[in-house]
Write a structure and sequence with these properties.
Elements: H1 6-16, H2 24-31, E1 41-48, E2 51-63, E3 76-85, H3 94-108, E4 111-119, H4 123-131, E5 135-144, E6 149-157, E7 194-197
Parallel strand pairs: 3-4
Antiparallel strand pairs: 1-2, 1-7, 2-3, 4-6, 5-6
């Protein structure tokens, strides 16, 4: 995601999350930490024929207090801040592709685990996260305001081994490659004609 994407991202944010949408300022603040050698954020957008169809973001923090488990030297913690997919792209695999990009970023940030909050009433998102190996570790009461909706707190340990999820219950046939050019011989989590960029 770049600064010129913010207005389109903000419009989709308001469409998908009308009660608790992020402000433009929140996106600007996140992007301020997404570039350069000290970057702690990764934000991506997905476009199809020049139209924004999704976006996602992740933040990372330093080492865990106790050094964590044996994770090959990875000790940081990442937090999925947001994943959004335009309604007409639900069920296409785009959410999986965006999450894969975030988990790759968490691995690059040398994070040993990834956390996220998910609305307790968003079963579609919960199933996506579970396919990638996330487990529920708690509940935050009244987390989403002003609707006072609870959030599940979910955790994934070692994101480097989870970038390809288990098969979904109702699998959508893969139709394209990841951020590389389309390769019909070896399809990965992706949507044909959809490109992601940071």
């Amino acid at each position: 995601m770049r600064w010129w994407d913010i207005e389109r991202v903000f419009q989709l944010e308001r469409e998908l999350f009308p009660e608790d949408a992020w402000s433009r300022g929140m996106f600007w603040s996140e992007l301020a930490h997404a570039r350069g050698p000290a970057a702690t954020r990764r934000y991506v957008v997905a476009e199809e024929d020049g139209r924004l169809v999704g976006y996602a973001g992740l933040t990372s923090a330093g080492a865990t207090a106790d050094g964590g488990e044996d994770t090959g030297g990875a000790t940081g913690v990442a937090d999925v801040q947001t994943i959004a997919v335009r309604r007409d792209h639900w069920g296409t695999g785009l959410g999986s592709r965006l999450l894969t990009e975030l988990l790759r970023a968490a691995t690059a940030f040398e994070c040993a685990e990834v956390l996220l909050e998910c609305r307790i009433d968003n079963v579609r998102a919960q199933k996506l996260y579970e396919r990638f190996g996330f487990e529920t570790i708690g509940v935050r009461k009244g987390y989403y305001q002003p609707g006072n909706v609870d959030a599940l707190v979910m955790r994934l340990t070692d994101p480097s081994v989870s970038v390809t999820p288990a098969a979904p219950v109702d699998p959508v046939p893969p139709t394209a490659a990841s951020t590389a050019p389309v390769n019909p011989v070896n399809p990965v989590n992706g949507v044909e004609g959809t490109e992601t960029h940071g």
